[in-house]
Amino acid sequence: MRVSTSWMQQQSVNTMMERQGDLSGIQTQMGTGKRINQPSDDPVGATRAVELTHLGADTDQYQRNITSANARLGLEDKTLSSVGNVLGRVRTLLLQGMNASQTAESRNDIATEMVQLRDQLLGMANSKDAQGDYIFAGNRTGAAPFVSQPGGVSYVGDQGQRMVAAGPGLQVATGDPGSAVFMDTLTGNGSFAVGAAAGNTGSALVGATGVTDASAWNGGNYQIVFTAPNAYEVRDSGGAVVSSGAYDPEKGGTIAFKGVQVAFSGTPAANDSFAVAPSSKQSMFDTLDGIIGALRQSTSETGLQNALGGQLANLDQAIGTVTQTRAGVGARMNALDQQGSLNGDLTLQYKTALSDVQDLNYYDAVSKLSLQSSALQAAQLTFSKLQNMTLFDYLK
After folding, report:
1. Which of 31, 25, 59 has the alpha carbon at shortest distance from 349?
2. CA atoms within 13 A on the CB side of 118
3. Residue 261, beta-bridge partner list
4. Predicted TM-score of the model (pTM)
5. Among 135, 145, 348, 388, which is least packed, fewest CB within 10 Å?
6. CB neighbours of 226 closer than 8 A, spacing ≥ 6?
7. Is 377 left (phi over 0), alpha (psi -120 to 50) or beta?
8. Is the backbone of residue 220 left (phi > 0), alpha (psi -120 to 50) or beta?
């Protein structure tokens, strides 16, 4: 192997440049605080750092989704609370209207206030969030979901629920369609409803109703017919008698059949009848319209009491629907809070793992910096000595 003066000088330069590169790398790491500043620094570690960065970014997005969802659900809960307050006021007025001491004029005044409450309820049903989206419109958030028409209030939204991703595989609804909250309230006691025939002439009033044996109740249509003030028959939709018995007009009593029971008070007239039908869906607005109409209607006191009693049962179902919806909203908000706490823990874990992968150990770096500085100085010193030397110096 031939060794020339230029070769020795080039080797010295190469060594000095390598030491300079090593020193520059350490200085870059100390300047950025990162052990990995480019993939070539640690290909495996760089790949892991990218994965952890993406996981952290996903978790941050989940947290933003949770914040947005909680805000929307919180607004829905406040709105439903106000709806419950309105319905509570309607119930108070309804009970006042059922007082036999009320006059036609005072009941008309009560109905007038209820008209205002109905309009207030409609405004709440068309509430918007901070982005201008209608809360109870389903996915059709750009238009008012409830429209008041001569025939009543119509729902023009859809049945969808807006969802957000709160965590890996976790989708949470940020609202409820207005149809489920305001339009689909069951009538009566939720299983069946009782209505007095318009032609009744006695003073019998419907009291509490209920299902005593769900397995025996077939959800059919029946009629309770008082064949005399002290006797009754229960007939099915075909007119067949399925039950009969005695009734005490002075004490009242409960008529039971097919797993259900209906309490009565007062004295019925012969052939007075009461229809028992499966509960159907009725909007809150129709319930209020029914109450208002009954209060303003010129009818007998018994007819009014039965009409208002039936609407009271419908109103209680509406209040129960609001309560159940709020419970569902609260459950979703709790789930979001729990997931938010979990996301916070995951964020900390990802940051810790990312720090372990790419952050610089300054104690180690300072030691390497000192070592690389000494190595560079040695290389520079070697170069300076070789620079002025030739092979002829050894031949002297």
Report:
1. 59
2. 22
3. 210, 256
4. 0.79
5. 388
6. 202, 204, 232, 247, 268, 269, 270, 271, 272, 273
7. alpha
8. beta
161 is written with which tokens?
A: 């629920």
What single letter denotes the amino acid at residue 265? S
Q: Evaluate whether 210 touches 204 at the Cβ level (below 8 Å).
A: no
Please state, in angstroms and as integers, the Cα–Cα distance from residue 233 to each residue in 103, 191, 214, 225, 278, following that order: 35, 21, 22, 5, 19
Phi, psi of 275 (to 5 degrees): -85, 135
Express each pLDDT in 378-396 by its tens digit: 555 555 555 555 555 555 5
Around 375, how many Cα atoms within 13 Å sit in the side-chain half-sphere? 17
| pLDDT tens profile 99-151 | 988 999 999 999 999 999 999 999 999 999 888 999 999 999 889 999 998 88
Q: Rounded CA gap, 304 and 295, in Å?
A: 8
**Is the separation of the CB atoms in 279 and 191 below 8 Å?**
yes
Q: Which helix (DSSP H) or strand (DSSP E) does residue 25 occupy?
A: helix 5-32
Q: What angle do CA 217, 219, 224 make, to 5 degrees?
A: 85
Instruction: At 64, list the tokens.
Output: 């933003």
Alpha-carbon gap, residue 48 to 341, rounded angstroms: 25
Helix (H) or strand (E) holding 225: strand 222-228
Amino acid at 303: G
The count of residues in the chain is 396
Residues 6+ positions from 155 with CB-CB distance below 8 Å: 145, 146, 178, 179, 182, 183, 283
Nearest residue to 330 via CA among 126, 81, 54, 45: 81
- Give dist(CA 321, CA 314) in Å, integer: 11
Work out the number of other CB atoms within 10 angstroms of the CB of residue 324: 12
Q: Which residue has the higher pLDDT, 47 or 225?
A: 225
Residue carrying structure tokens 């077939």: 218
- The residue type of 115 is V
